[in-house]
Amino acid sequence: MVEAIIFRYRTGIAWRDLPEVFGPWQTVWTWHHRMATEGTWDRVLAKITAAADAAGLVDSSLSADSTIARAHQHATNTTRLTGGWIELQESAGRAP
Hints:
The chain has four helices and no strands.
């Protein structure tokens, strides 16, 4: 199960796309979900990090990504203040 979970995260595939050699994907997901809920993964990470730090294997370098991703103005889901019945009412009062 651990190998299946690691494979899934390493490859970035969906749970449903796990190879059949790992068994039913639902079983792997349930096992992963249960371990995450119980905090098992957090404890494993803490132990591995502590052991690596004690061995001097932790390199605390920093990496900053300066990539800019621009979105089209209509890609946001905010409400626009232009248009609508208020403007229609105001413009109707100015009509000849």
